[in-house]
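Input record (one chain):
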Amino acid sequence: MAEQATGAVEETGGTGSLAHGSTGSLAQGTEHVSEHNSGRPVSWAAVSVIVVGFLVGIPAMVPHMRWWLFWIGVGIVVLGVLLMAAVKTFSEDWY
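The corresponding structure, as predicted from the sequence alone:
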């Protein structure tokens, strides 16, 4: 069984900042550089189409099932997935 720390925790005196997009030194003295990958515009378009499909399909189930609206939402999601697969964004936007 792992030991658990008890008692007060002392501060290291480090002035590190891990805020988004900032550079600072950590307690070990190394620099933290955050590199942001925003993806390509076609990736954002494909994901946006998929999200719209879900937003169309969700209200189709409340308060009672409206199958025609549900299948329209499914069709929009499939179009977004096909767009993403056609331009291969799922593999090129990852580092």
